[in-house]
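About this split. The held-out portion is used to measure sequence recovery: a designer receives only the structure tokens and must propose an amino acid at every position. Recovery is the fraction of positions where the proposal matches the reference. Here is one held-out target exactly as it appears in the evaluation file.
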């Protein structure tokens, strides 16, 4: 990206005009940038327009287009036009992104000023990040970030990540099918009980099986029970953790979900984890053709396009379903992830029964951003991130499913926004906003493992789960193998080093 003659002339004209007009007359119309209107604040369009970074260059690394990569480029172009800076954006596929960021850090190169990446990598990246200055932490945009996502941004008491996204897993389902009297009667005939939104993963599997391979919406095409992320190298580990969490995250047992924090013994082969995997394996029979190797994109378009009754993962499938051209727009609803009546208590070595299902909201890895500690342009870099995440840009980005920017501020949990700005029916907006708010403020949350070597841990977990899914090993055998590998990884990295990092995760879960 380069500074254009038009930009220079605009800035000169703006400066000259500012000498002649009173402040009240200086309000600018920034709607040409794709926003509805500017929102006053430290990093608003007007505030950034007043900056002059002419002759300076900002280098950014981000994910491939569209998810996060597209809004990165859009806001970089805007920032360039407003400030006169030269902004270079490098887009990298997810599989290469970690190494493309880490190698320059390890070799002492100041390759990038601004970095966009998966927040679970913070355990590896934290030594190389600049702390977010207090003035940005005190900005109106940052002050309205919820405590959950401020916690995700923090490492050892310091805010190292600049929050511009909020992610969690939750249940999505076809409300039109669940509310259809004929479908309700069919389900009761098959199962002997009333059709309800699944409260446990056992119920989820039962509902998915009952509605699998049938035309439940009358469009002449077969429908299926469940779309899930099952592809080994495409975030399958997150889908699996969603299923495991309520069985293995006991609300009265503290000190770790992935490991026992005190001993650093892996917990991934304990009974709660094993039962979650058994249910994951069972669910394969209710997936669409090819569903046993679905990546995230497949899950998004399977549920979002109306093929499947239910799914769970990030917001994308729900937002896809609610696009204006979607065949199931305003026919869907959201709910917190299913729970468990039986929960493993590792303190007592026994299963505890919960009459009301135990829930374990999963705040799974999301996109985050940071400024490199060795950047010579930290002032400009933090201005860019603050501008990226300003209220006007975020409200626009939330409406574009492919952007991958999801709710993270208190104001984002207001159903009125989705009704008035996005045209959702009131019931859908209420379902969505309430679900996200309940997850954000929920007890017994699970957060991603964020420790040095997290990529190795998650790759091992995904490989073990894949062995069970293919029938190569039982759930117990597969997770015993994962636990052994995790122990070896801890030994190689150093138990004290992994423990010190994991303590940040446990502090979020046990608060």
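Reference sequence for scoring:
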């Amino acid at each position: 990206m380069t500074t254009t003659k038009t930009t220079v002339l605009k800035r000169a004209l703006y400066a000259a005009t500012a000498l002649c007009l009173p402040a009240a007359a200086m309000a600018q119309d920034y709607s040409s940038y794709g926003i509805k209107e500017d929102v006053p604040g430290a990093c608003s369009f007007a505030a950034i327009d007043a900056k002059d970074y002419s002759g300076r260059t900002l280098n950014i690394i981000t994910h491939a287009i569209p998810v996060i990569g597209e809004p990165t480029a859009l806001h970089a172009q805007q920032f360039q036009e407003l400030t006169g800076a030269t902004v270079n954006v490098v887009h990298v596929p997810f599989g290469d992104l970690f190494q493309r960021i880490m190698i320059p850090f390890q070799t002492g190169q100041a390759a990038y000023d601004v970095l966009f990446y998966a927040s679970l990598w913070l355990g590896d990246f934290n030594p190389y990040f600049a702390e977010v200055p207090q003035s940005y932490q005190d900005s109106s945009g940052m002050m309205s970030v919820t405590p959950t996502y401020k916690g995700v941004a923090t490492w050892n008491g310091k805010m190292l990540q600049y929050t511009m996204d909020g992610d969690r897993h939750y249940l999505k389902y076809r409300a039109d099918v669940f509310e259809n009297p004929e479908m309700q009667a069919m389900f009761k005939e098959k199962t002997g009980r009333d059709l309800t939104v699944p409260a446990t993963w056992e119920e989820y599997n039962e509902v998915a099986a009952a509605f699998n391979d049938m035309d439940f919406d009358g469009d002449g095409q077969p429908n299926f029970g469940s779309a899930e992320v099952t592809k080994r190298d495409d975030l399958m580990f997150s889908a699996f953790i969603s299923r495991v969490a309520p069985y293995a995250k006991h609300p009265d047992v503290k000190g770790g979900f992935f490991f026992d924090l005190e001993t650093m013994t892996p917990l991934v082969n304990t009974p709660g984890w094993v039962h979650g995997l058994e249910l994951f394996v069972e669910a394969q029979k209710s997936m669409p053709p090819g569903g046993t190797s679905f990546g995230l994109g497949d899950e998004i378009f399977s549920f979002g396009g109306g093929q499947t009754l239910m799914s769970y993962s990030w917001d994308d499938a729900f937002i896809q379903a609610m696009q204006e051209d979607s065949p199931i727009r305003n026919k869907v609803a959201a709910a917190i992830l299913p729970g468990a009546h039986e929960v493993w208590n590792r303190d007592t070595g026994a299963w505890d029964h919960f009459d009301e299902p135990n829930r374990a909201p999963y705040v799974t890895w999301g996109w985050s951003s940071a400024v490199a500690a060795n950047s010579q342009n930290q002032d400009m870099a933090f201005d860019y991130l603050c501008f990226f995440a300003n209220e006007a840009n975020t409200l626009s980005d939330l409406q574009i499913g492919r952007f991958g920017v999801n709710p993270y501020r208190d104001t984002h949990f207001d159903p009125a926004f989705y009704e008035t700005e996005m045209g959702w029916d009131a019931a859908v907006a209420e379902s969505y906003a309430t679900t996200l708010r309940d997850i954000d403020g929920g007890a017994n949350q699970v957060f991603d493992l964020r420790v040095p070597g997290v990529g190795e841990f998650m790759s091992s977990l995904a490989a073990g789960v894949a062995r069970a899914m293919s029938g190569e090993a039982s759930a117990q055998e597969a997770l015993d193998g994962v636990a052994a590998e995790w122990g070896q990884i801890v030994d190689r990295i150093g138990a004290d080093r992994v423990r010190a990092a994991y303590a940040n995760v446990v502090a979020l879960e046990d608060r």
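Annotator remark: Residues 475-493 form the longest helix (19 residues).
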